[in-house]
Design goal:
Length: 242
Amino acid sequence: MPNPSAAMLVIGDEILSGRTRDANMHHLAGRLTEHGIDLKEVRVVSDDADAIVTAVKALSAGYDHVFTSGGIGPTHDDITADCIARAFDDHIDIRDDARDLLAAYYAENGREFNAARQRMARIPDRATLIDNPVSIAPGFTLENVHVMAGVPSVFNAMVESVLPSLTGGAPLVSRTVRIDRGEGDIAGPLGQLVQNYATLSFGSYPFIENGAFGVNIVIRGTDAALISDAARSLQDQFKEAT
């Protein structure tokens, strides 16, 4: 049985403008791989409500899980929560459970729980809160969409809060074989190897080192023994492999 599938939706003009470099995709991909969930697609959209709603609907229908990043803070352009509610035709407003968490947090820290901060308690009615041990303001899960903050430390913490509730498959194993020849030299034998090991995934990543061409072949799958066998077969064909 194949592993559950996932997609990620990164939301924010700052990503598309180049002002901010996204680090959350790298972290999520690694943690999902360890958990046996295959990340299949990543999209980036602007702070545009129609674009967010369209992307959420499409990804939710196409994958077992969707993880969003960004747009759930206190400012005017933090519209993700409202868009998720709209995508699933759910009502949204300040919810008591989220408000109580935030009110207690700001009271403890001697800061005003003003109208802007109360926006972070806007949660769709049918959603389940995602714990945020870093800054308290919760994310939430609605149907198969997990809505998380864009700040990497908070996003990472929310991922750890969600993962135990998700059923994963077999963790993905990978092995890299270096071939000190150009891609054109190895394409034929590699193509045959791919056919012989149809349940594995092969990636070819060329490089130039000291003026010489080479390729790193990354073999991925859930069967470690089969991956080792494929790697040995590849090395046998190219004695320069290390």
